[in-house]
What we know:
By secondary structure, the protein is mostly helical. The protein has helices spanning 3-22, 24-36, 42-66, 72-89, 94-110, 118-139, 142-166, 172-193. The protein has one domain (25-193).
Amino acid sequence: MSAATVEAGRGTPYRVLRAIGRRWPAGLALVMSVPMAGGADVAGQVSGLGEVLLLLPMLYLVTARTGRRGLSWPLLAAAFGLIFAVRGLDLVPAPFLLVPLGAALLVWSVVGGHAHRGGVRIQALGLVGFSALALLGLALDPDVGLYVVAAGWLLHGVWDFVHLRLDRVVARSYAEWCGVVDILVAAQLLALAW
């Protein structure tokens, strides 16, 4: 009996389970977004999510610069560790550490002529653009900054899905997961405004 015959004999439930299994990053994003919903006030949400928005393009730039897509998930874990450590120590506001880190990554991407490679250049521009949105959102009154930070998250979700479609820079599973999370975070922020 061929593998195709066995699979065909298993019917629709088997195919549905396989389809769900292939979409595990989206499922993980949905599960992870439930605890993120609600919680802090508008100012707290804008501040916390604005800070995380500063980190997202850094992951793409490091992955592009190293050319190692497999670093996507370990870099995400390191980024979460960094943001929790910065917040836990409460020595300085997170942007005072994250902005210089982003600048250092931009310099690192230029060293050795790597900025001339298309992927690194695009990621460097992404870092500048998303950081500008995050910093603007953090600088404005939270009721207005909320829209700017939400726009940053929504645009980063589009960024993720473009990378998923093109199958470039980061792991496909990471791009899918991040895109779903980003869209849900943007929706959560906009829901705070209503």
